[in-house]
Amino acid sequence: MCDGGLISEVGKREARVIAVVDDDESFRDALQRFLRTLGFQVETFASGREILGSNQLGLVTCVILDLAMPEMGGLEVQQQLAARGLRIPIVFVTAHRDNQLGQRAVAVGAACRPPKTGEPGRASSLGAGGVGGAVSAR
Prior knowledge:
By secondary structure, this protein is α/β, with parallel strands linked by helices.
């Protein structure tokens, strides 16, 4: 029944990866587990420098990126990705209520800035709608 045609072609394609970049290890791990339950392949990174130095960057189809991290914040990571010519959809998240930072994120193209915590139901919308839409759009 299976001649290997379609199946072998699917196996040859590169996997689509969602990158979760956050200095909060428990948030990274929880979001990775959640996204994997939805069928996504997920790689996590503890810092902006870590993802920018990754050999997996070419496989990334969506980045969930913390706006406020030490050393290199999410906006700087976004600028570095853009400078490299990488047009990867980014979902910015933050635990900080900083309106200026949120406005700067929207100014560089963020459609929204879902919180990590605090608003029931909003963070879970990252799953099927937000991230799923970004990944399938690529």
